[in-house]
Amino acid sequence: MDYNFKEIEQQWQSEWNKAGAYKVSNKSDKQPYYVLDMFPYPSGAGLHVGHPLGYIASDIYARYKRLQGFNVLHPMGFDSYGLPAEQYAIQTGTHPEVTTFKNIDHYIEQLKKIGFCYDWDREVRTCDPKFYKWTQWAFIQMFNSYFDTQLQKARPISELIAKWEQTDPTWATLSEKEQQERLMNYRIAYLSDTKVNWCPKLGTVLANDEVSEGLSVRGGYPVEQRVMRQWSLRVSAYAGRLLEGLNNIDWTESLKETQRNWIGRSEGAEMRFKIKGQDEPFTIFTTRADTVFGVTFMVLAPESEYVARVVTPDHQAEVDAYLDRCKHRTERERIADRKVTGVFTGSYAINPLTNAEIPIYISDYVLSGYGTGAIMAVPAHDSRDYAFAKHFNLPIIPLIEGADVTEASFDAKEGKMMNSGFLNGLEVKDAIAKMKEYITNTGIGHVKVNYRLRDAIFSRQRYWGEPFPVYYKDGMPYMVDEKDLPITLPEISDYKPAEDGRPPLSKAQNWTYKGYPLELNTMPGFAGSSAYYLRYMDNHNDQALVDQGVNAYWKQVNLYIGGTEHATGHLIYSRFWNKFLYDLGYVCEDEPFQKLINQGMIQGRSNFVYRYIGEGADGNLYISFNLIDRPEYKGKVQPIHVNVNIVHNDVLDINAFRAWMPEYQKARFVYADGTMDEDNPYLGVAAEKQYICGWAVEKMSKSMFNVVNPDDVVEQYGADTLRLYEMFLGPLEMSKPWDTNGIDGVHRFLRKLWNMYENVTNDAPTKDELRSLHKLIKKITWDIENFSFNTSIPAFMIAQNELSALKCNKTAILREIAVLLAPYAPHIAEAMWHRCGETTFVIDAEWPVCNEAYLEEDGVKYPVQFNGKVRFTLEQPKTATKEEVEQAVMANEETAKYLNGATPKRVIVVPGRIVNIVI
RNA sequence: GCGGCAUUGGCGGAAUUGGUAGACGCGCCAGACUUAGGAUCUGGUUCUCACGAGUGUAGGUUCGAGUCCUAUAUGCCGCACCA
Hints:
Distance between the termini: 41 Å
Radius of gyration: 35 Å
Helix content: 25-40%
Mean pLDDT: 86
Largest sheet: 7 strands, mixed
């Protein structure tokens, strides 16, 4: 019986379905294990072959863990709020929900074909009111909490109020509005006037991770700075813990490093500088406290609140002009044009160590959002200060011996101090420590840790997102009663955002709560994806995000697989969100994702035909790729993208090409062998004539005709071949192009393997067969444990070869092979399993254990290496000459038994010690 | 500028603890079966006619290095006026 993958895959998918084979219970005596994929945003284009890469890897691991006896949670869902569906709605008037549901259905259909072991009963959708009820609930908890900096954790805001009532006599004198305003400075979800990234084209504000180089990540539209009243999440409060937590989780170094960069911890000091003629000092942040003796001026950010205090009347006009200019420059312009600009305020500060009077400037090279928005400038040892000093002709005092600062600043933190009073002669590192001690003791300043991480702006002026559970009374926000959740998204007919920032929800009818107006903004994309992994545990629970007992069972995601593109977005927000819930006792783990693997991107592999454009060209002649460097064609051909689906192993399907588009109907070719079509374009093509296409690795996109749809691969080769081939393509974590050359080899292997199950017998297996099997068990087990899925496929092929050569048809061997293959190619494995006479599902089988004894011979145990080589090490004897060593080898009981009179192929000897003998 | 990762045949890539580099697959070559092949099967295939050489380049450690160390080049990714 031939390998009929279509029949096999359909049959077993429906059997699994009928039996509910992938249903996962929250009640089990088994150990829990949670394997999670980053859930997709269902786009209209559907899945391409790049999407399932990570899903296949996690599916293999999930199935393996299940075979090992774990109760495995492996769910899938959809991140279904977001811009594309809304943009589509604006263009067509179709409700985003309609588009989104249609896309989800398509995704599910595609995913089901590939045979994942998801428990679809646990599916979640972020746009489902039953789901976003808990997103809104979490927001209310954040509003009602503050971050206790002493405890370094979130606490109910009521505790803060109680504290103030007892310790702060002014509290009771404040009006309710004043009290609320004060509390707003502490709430974890808070409303404030803040400088935001406003994208007029998208009609919404964006978080920092959604903006890159002054352009929106989605769409690439310009982003400008604007002050707006917005909700934010106090993520920055968790900066220290987010950084610390990285040490206890099993993520790749590069991803942790990306997050560390993003959090951006820097240890320094805050120092107070007096302003000449004023009592109140102002505070700056520096990491180079050692350089105070070299401060020759001060700089404030244009937005700094100190500006108003220090500008003298005679400089007011000049400063106003400068501030105005800064305000109208976009972030992008500021970055692109790094000219030194600035203006003198007219005021002077006093250097607390030298008592020198130093001028105070304003310049946009100082950022308002970092530190205190004010710096002390040390031109000799900071390149930015240096450029500023040169431009405004300010003094530059070198502080490190031997540093030449006539051309450039000396930024390195090394060398001996000079011109620095009591620091003279110290190494920079020691000088920093000593100065910190000094300023602390004298009260000039204190040691301070600063983070680059900012709070996350949480409002979006869009329609297709979670509504806030917030209403307004006297202009102050109040939370909706928890029992009234969810606040469902209202129907509207006009989704268009306004450039003035009025959100689409302003057009909703009756958008009120108890007669008060509801919040018009919606939540950003990361709101729904921040705690979805918790909801899978208990997705039908309408009393809690997740039942505490259920959460205590599953605990956290043991293995999370997804792309690096979420490093500074979702993966930061999720960790923050989880830590917050942990602080309030809603979840039992501090970190959401114990182990994280980033699958590489699958790029497109484009194919090209080469149109002849030289002398006498009629636009219908195409030159085979192997000929384009010939003198008669060189420089006279134009590469044209050709649909990769009509190219097989870089050979063009001539007839399909002519039928592809009208302009190619009359195409003629110069074939790989140099022969040319007659002028009659309708001639048939002789079988041996091949047109070779060129290729390039590019992004997978429609316009390059290199998108490969997994449905087509499943149709042609079956899901099992697709799964194996995606793994075979290369290491999981590396980026690689999708290249169909080679998929035949994998398919051939499955067919050959299948044929071995033709006439199975129950005879006892031979030693060689057992050896082959146990070598495979060892290898596959190691591979899966180490996520080295790509090397498993060759191992299967080798085993198939060996067993095939032995004409093995023993069920004792073949049924174990089926189990080993089950994680990778579940359908064929299931069919193989049943051909061995089994009646249960292979997914309920037990993972075979490698019996090392089968790898032994004559009672001697030899470590088997990957390539099957046998090698062992001896400590004896202490001889040096080759002959003596060989004698010793023969004399050794173990080696002699193995060699059985033969000479070893290779003996590697270190004087006095035999290291390695290869037989 | 700072940080992370990578570099092995014509191609994708193996080499798990430092131990015969090039597994396995593609492609290519030859043969078999075929009216035919984008089918199937068998054998070969790092380079070089050869001697030999060989894991980006140059050194080092080691009996032994693709693997460890130092420098360097190239490519990819992250951060970047963050004081």
